[in-house]
Amino acid sequence: MTRRALPALAVLAATIAAAAPVRASSRYSLRGEGEPVLPFTAQVRAMGGAEAASGTPGIGTNPASLALADKTRFHGSWLTDWVRTEETLPAGVAVRKEYEGYVPNLGLVFVAPGRVRLGTGLLVDRRIDGRIVRDAATPDGQPYRQVFEASGNLLRVPLLVARDAGAVQLGAGLDFVLGTSEIRWRNDFPSGTAFLDSDDRDETGAWGVAWRAGVRVPIGGRAAVAAWGLWPGELSGHRRLENEDPQDTTSAVEIDFETETASRMGAGVELTPLAGWRVAADWTREGWEDVAAPRSVGTFVDVDRVSVGVEWTGSSGSGLRQPVRAGFRTEPLHTLDAGGREIRETAFSAGTGFVFADGRGQFDWFVEYGRRGKQDESEYFEQFVRLGISLTGFEEWSGRRPPETDTDDW
Amino acid sequence: MPCPPAPPAAPARATLVLVLCAAAFGLPACGTKGDDTLGVSLIEDRGDRKAVRFAAMAADSGTAFQSDSQAGDPATAPTLLVTARPGYLARALLRFPNSVLPGGVTVDSAMVVLPYRDGFGTTSFSLAVHRVLEDWTEASFPPDSFPAFDAVPAVTIDVPFPEAALDTFSLSLTALAQAWSDDTTANFGIALLPAVAETGELAMDARESTTPPRLTVHWTAAGADSSRNAVPSADLYALGTTPGFVPLSGQPRRVTIARGLAARSFLRFPWADPGVRATIHRAELTLHGDAALSSSNGFAIGVRRVAAPPWNGFSTDVDPTVRGIRNVVADEDSVVLDVTDVLIGMLDGGNHGLEIRASDERPDTDYLRFHGWDTESPALAPTLRVWWTSGDLLEDAP
Fold it and tell me: Which of A95, A248, A335 to mutate to test the interface with B (most CBs of B within 10 A)?
């Protein structure tokens, strides 16, 4: 039944994704380099995103974890965001609610000969998205509407290799980093007023390479520690400023530029203290203070993300065969709010999953509730609920015996 | 062999998957419930630079100038002008093709219908029609070299303007047509002149217009009646000045715009460069009329951008297209011209001033005056009002 339903679900997902609104990003994503999108599977997200020392192979953080893959696997995730944003204004509290659905990651881990593991995929790393509309009037009283729109994302395409070295897992590789953004400002006058509208666009695209390396060290049979880092080089970018005035075709300017994004390093631990229990914790630092911030932002702040998760899998006699996962995550945003205050994001998560098709597939899901900012104090107070699913397929690649030669005589 | 019973967890698991997937995929399709006004601080930060700006300014310099020769090419003008306004003299010529009338016939009637375009004066216009005595070509020539014509008018009529309903008026030229038939080599057409003591002006549609003059001839040949009609094979007018001419541009403190002998004015406003990629939402030039110093039934005026300094009368480098064209009547207190396109041109080409002129300088000798940049009534000085948005700058990196 599940096997028959999956293609239909995939078609349903693609159809809805094409029609879905894409406006549920954090309002804070409009400041700085956007909102982080944690590129983990639902299994990891359910445990707060603690992955570095995990026994589950993944391509999001520590490449050393790939060495634990015993089968070639591919995975894809779907994430639905619901966000409720409050902005406290002199006239009262304005509230905004939005849904959004998207694919945050796709991954492929390939088991190569010689205990080598290869990993690649597509990771949505950050995203910018939002639209602000405000009614305004010119100094002499002509009414018009200001429309600010921003969109963009930062994608990573990793090419990773990992291998066991004794009991230790080692991994390294590189991420192709691709960032795009478009910031648009329009001043729209009511039709019939003989005023022309303005439409200014600031488009950027940049790409570069980030180097990644990691190690995972099992300690005894019940613990493992890990560390990893990601060091991006300079991103080569192209920027285009354009005034969309159809009567003015000479003012667009295009320049090449160099930019940078934050380096990352992380450490993690995984414990299996009791049978059926697994505990993981991660600390990740994103070095944003070394990145030059645009004038409109002023300064970036380093991000220290702490993730903790626990998983319990009942014994065969417990009646509950699916693992139960729960997690917690907290981190500051890399930009300050309009008042120069730190904005902290805190989230609680839970989830579970199961295998199907005789172990050739795995379905995981998680739900997460979180908050950004402080009510009545921060620029925005946001609450979000995320529902995510991941589908993982396993394939044991082995040499197939050639068909036997038919030797029967006629 | 009976099928083994299905594991009891399988239906529940499939249902769970479907519910989760439906929720995950379905929620985004619930549609937006967004209030896009959230983000006051952010849009205010950027709005300091990206809000629409407005400036109203008075001109800081200006000048007027007038041509001493006829505006445009009268051979291709869509009008024929006859005038005796003080200081001016305009006379028109028309010639119909010989083919319209065979030689040696008896002309029963010949009627020229002239489409009325405009007139200026306090009474009807007295028009004298003379037979032209020498050949001429449809090309511009000095007013004092007008072709010789019969000193005695063939016809003199009063054109009863101003009458809104007047579309055409007619000239009976039977005797003249008979003379052309008698000697087909002597058809040099007719000259239209202001009659003696006339001080007004009459404008008619020329053959280049959509309603050209028309000659209709009826004649008798070999006992049979025939008729033909034709439009002129050539027509033009020559405009010059008389000894009483006073250049219009000599009026101080005024913007002067004239047709016929074209007068134009330059104005410059101290508008600062709004920077690259700025958008001009709207620009308006307001002129305040001086009816006492104007002489016009009204005409359309417009603006061109001065492309490069210096101002040098008709030799000044200006954009080819007249923009912001608007019809102006003589007693209009103020006129607002839409000069948005002109200001857009200034974004790339610089602010070297505006040329204010008639959009068509050929039809008549009307002129308009507006208070100038240095008028004795500062409240009536020309005003430029501009609404714009600054462009994005490279240093404002995203």
Answer: A248
Q: Does any CB of chain B come closer than 8 Å to the CB of residue A276?
A: no
CA distances from A14 to A23, A85, A103 (A): 18, 27, 10
What is the rounded CA–CA span in Å between residue B225 and residue B234? 27
Contact residues for B102 (Cβ-Cβ < 8 A; gap 6+): B181, B219, B221
Residue given tokens 């008698």 in the structure block:
B182
| Burial call A242-259: b when 16+ CB within 10 Å, e when fewer | bbebeebeebebeeeeeb
Q: Is A91 on the interface with B (CB under 8 A)?
A: no
- The Cα–Cα gap between A336 and A28 comes to 9
Low pLDDT (below 50) residues in chain A: 1-3, 5-6, 9, 12-13, 15-21, 399, 409-410
Q: At residue B357, what is the residue type?
A: R
CA distance A398 to chain B (A): 30
B15 → chain A, closest CA residue = A2
CA–CA gap between residue A150 and residue A132 (Å, rounded): 9
User: Quick check: ipTM above 0.90?
Assistant: no
Q: Is the dihedral of CA B5, B8, B13, B15 positive or negative?
A: positive
**Terminal alpha carbon distance of chain B:** 71
Strand partners, A371: A346, A383
Mean pLDDT estimate for chain A: 87
